[in-house]
């Protein structure tokens, strides 16, 4: 009997050891998750050709970020490089494809954060910077500040050799037409004749872009870039450049980037709140993200979504809108791209 018990005990220990080894082997050693904005992204809202365009760029983003991480480079490098791609694409509300203000200008914001050191950089109200996320990183690494805005931020950029572009670079035909529709609806609303059909799905989607990643050293990073709210006035700034609202990263919790109605994400400090729930309450990444995005944000009246990742390869991407352009690529797996609610 004792011999049988000893054999059983040995078997159980061996089983436990194998489970630990297999679990350790299955954990990805690096990876990234991204978003290209949330909003009225419904099946059938866009043509097959347009859907293919989004798929192509998102796939390029995932492959680029994955390769950087696979080479052993920092998560920060992957975040910046991937957001650069989306800033250079007219498909998203960032950089080249930024929405326009009421004055017909592109006004850009961005932020980035290092989860290892909690260093962060942010910029807002830019008019001539091709890739705001790269300037945000320079603010983080080459200045004693966290946030620079407007003319001062662009003066800093010139001093660091960042190339400037004219406003015309950002003024895509699609965004010009979108602003016209927004203004027409605004006038109709003032006259009490609001007509929702004046707007297309692209007018009401939030195309802010963001990336969260973890590298082979176990460090996480996050970044967010946006053109803000279409037809915005008075120098309005949303959550994207606000550390703790639109962007947050901390190694022992997670890295987060948000997209949505910025005023609500600022008031709830959404990105930091997810991290805090993990740190102070011991919640899982998914549970913390769902608690904030699916409960707290809509309860206050806001909408949008987030993407998040931790150093163990756990991911979350809750959103309370019709859809969100999103994708992830973890070591040991294949790239995954989604657009609609499931």
Describe the protein's architecture and organization.
With 342 residues, this protein is of the alpha+beta class. It has a single domain, classed as 4-Layer Sandwich (Glutamine Phosphoribosylpyrophosphate, subunit 1, domain 1). Helix content is 40%, strand content 20%. It is built from ten helices and twelve strands. The protein has helices at 2-26, 48-70, 75-87, 132-142, 150-159, 173-190, 201-204, 262-267, 270-281, 285-300, and strands spanning 31-39, 108-114, 120-126, 147-149, 209-214, 220-226, 247-249, 255-260, 304-309, 315-316, 323-330, 336-340. The strands form two sheets. An eight-stranded mixed β-sheet has the order 4-3-2-6-5-1-11-12. Helix 2 (48-70) runs antiparallel to helix 3 (75-87), helix 3 runs antiparallel to helix 4 and helix 9 packs across helix 10. The longest helix is centred in the first third of the chain and has 25 residues, at 2-26. The chain is globular, with a radius of gyration of 21 Å. The model is unreliable at 18-24 (pLDDT under 50).
At a glance:
The chain is α+β, with helices and mostly antiparallel strands and 342 residues long. It is built from 10 helices and 12 strands.
